[in-house]
Amino acid sequence: MESKYRIKKPLKENQFFTFTVIGFVEDPEFRIVGKDVPPKDWEKVTGKAAYVSDVYLPNMLYAKWYLSPYAHAKVKNVDVTKAKSLPGVVDILVCGDPDLSWKGHEEGIGSAGQHYTAAYPYLSDLWDFVLPSEAVREGQPVAVAVCAESSEICDRALNLVEIEWEELPFIISEEEALKPGAPITQHFRKLENNVIPSYPHTLSVQHQPFIRGNIEEGFKNSDKVIEWEVRRKDTTSAMAESYSAVAMWVGDELHIWARGHKPLQTIVWLNWMLGVEESKVRFHVTYQGADFGGICWTGLCHNVVLLAAIFAKRTGRPVKVIADFTPFYIVGEERGLYKFKVGFKKDGTITAVEVRTLGSLAEQPPVEKLAAATSIPNIYGESIRAYVNTGPVICYRHGTQNTLVFNEVINRVAAELGVDPTEVALKNDGCEGKPMHPVIDEIKKKQGFPLRDSLKECIEAGKRAIGWDEKWHPPGARRLPNGKYHGLGFGVCHQWQIIPGIPLAAASCIVRADGTATIMGRILDILGAKTALCQVFAEESGFRYDDISLNTECDIDLFEPGGSMSTACTNTAVMVELGRKVKQKILEIAANTQFFKGKKPEELDVHDSIIYEKANPENKRTVSEILQEYSRAPSTGFPSFGATWESNIMVQTFTTTSGLSLRRPGPYYIYARQAHFVEVEVDPETGKIEIKKAVVVNDVGRVINPRGVAGQQFGGCFFGVEREMWHEKVYDPCTGVVLNNNHVFYPCITMADIFPIDCIALECGFGYNYYGACGIGENVGTVWATGVLKSAIYNAIGKWIDEHPITPDKILKALGKI
């Protein structure tokens, strides 16, 4: 296997962190793609990056919400007399105000919005009111919002608001909420019980079981069947930056400065709620700090914008809404109870998996990743959720609940058989119930993919880095001289990547007379995204990387959801097309200048912003010289080029890493994998876990921006570790109030907690995209949060810890010490 690829020079190496790319030998060397280049978002490094909290407009006002002190209560009466009399208070909104009603009903937009909302029953608030009159969780923005000259005055005014409440029964456990006769937890939904219903004709498939094969036959054909339960408690994102938004009206045009992964969706809600024409909204995307995209699903980011727009309209001044409660507002999607039943053969072949969950967020039962990336023929998944009086449950690290299922099944079967878990993972590797060899290999041939084994290569690279073959041992079998237990852990999942059917994505480019190119495309603040897209454009256009900039302050949207998948996949495809169109246009222009008179565009090429004659490379001119000559010609101007990419084309026509254009026939499978390893020591006297080394291996298809890949790898690893060991929202059972919704009592990983980590990026070219690139980032943290550490602790002490988080007291209890 070593003959097929080479290990590229590590990006960085010290006692704590290494990053290595294992790439193709046979591929032509890229000029820019895959190189370590200066980042385009240098503002972050220098501290000059502008976040929403940094936006200040002349004569700007501030606004804040009243936050419910109760887990469940209704507003009976509101008195804002004292608040209004406070100097500096400009405006106050109270629930039921006409300005908070839908403005799109006459066109049927309002009902469409409510229909859309039905698809997402885990949304935070009643969508047709920015200020609901029923609080269904403590800390929820309700009833009153104040607009004043400063944030401090808002706080003082809110303290003067007098509200008469009707306290209602609350439930913070979904198991309790589903019991017969349980109190209704959210009255505004007008349901007879707390079960989150299934909504036909929407995106929701709650309570629609996932069925593959015949589960009962699968269990009958098994040599052994095991059952167990796993419980995951509430966690949160504990993001560093609170949500906020700034709104300013200029005539009938609305300017918005906001964060969030879906600006187009926010613009649609402005149209639905306020009747603002979508063409009249100017959305300014800012940097955002330590946040993930799923919080958009709660509707909170839209409500912040809506409130800012309403206050700005009423006061005639710019308004900044500060939602300083948001860092601890949401709940992780993996919460809940998981009941497993798994059947398997003596050789490790898994024949049947049944997973029933209570409480886990899932638009479908959380067996999606297991079904997509294994050969398991019989799978049954069922998920039930209930409305409770805690924060909204959303996805903010994609598919944690699905990754949990994947790793529980693989590691538990291995433990029952007493074998290496990597062997069980390889034994059951496949796609959509089909074995990887030979069935999927034949499909790879038809689709033009290389005949490589992503999971095998990921596992072998990780094993080498961690020293697995030398160190692995049966559970609880190795005690170190220092008295501690030694353990090795393993986690696996498929790599997130592009799928068919994505929406429209577009970009344009302006080339100036000085030879610089500005890409126009509104993207979001994702780690390394600007750099990666500029690298792709440079590679395809022939422009120097340093001559390219990306302007996100425009109304041209690249792939809307953002995130690491769209950066590496969808937006990359747009950049390839745009770069090629720009290059073709530049060469056509050059062929019509005096410098290359009589030459055809195909006889010319451009590299590093220098256009030259292929047959005579000494005949060359800079792009700037060509454009200046072009601009002096009659009836010409500076060129502007555009590229649009639609989903029905994107999923069919691609260029592989070897440069061959082809149409990939369906069906579409996820071939790329990731495998992660960890070495730990567990103190049997204190229960303390010490991570000695971690190894993160991701087959990303093709590395575009090394620093971006490395950042996602070690960042995701640290994120997952803190989730597995520390994260837990603690509720007062008497009041339903969250007791640790701050950075003092909600533990987060710090520089004092870091450990040595080897990050390895594998390039197998299995992405349905140019360069064969896949996504990176989202799944790294989920594997670490739901599999790697847990399996290592089991390997160390020989006992499973099935309740999250894994804390020293749980280890001591498992060991019989307490």
In short:
This protein is of the alpha+beta class.
Distinct helical segment count: 21
Strand order of the largest sheet: 5-7-3-14-11-12-13
Largest sheet: 7 strands, mixed
Tell the overall outline. globular
> Runs with pLDDT <50, length 5+?
1-5, 104-128, 199-206, 643-662
Q: What is the strand tally?
A: 34
Q: Tell me which CATH architecture of the domain at 52-173 and 248-326 applies here.
A: Alpha-Beta Complex
Strand content: 15-25%
Report helical residue fraction. 25-40%
Under CATH, the homologous superfamily of the domain at 52-173 and 248-326 reads Aldehyde oxidase/xanthine dehydrogenase, a/b hammerhead
Estimated structural class: alpha+beta
Mean pLDDT: 84
The CATH class assignment of the domain at 52-173 and 248-326 is Alpha Beta
Q: CATH topology of the domain at 52-173 and 248-326, anyone?
A: Aldehyde Oxidoreductase, domain 3
Rg estimate, integer Å: 28 Å
Distance between termini?
A: 50 Å
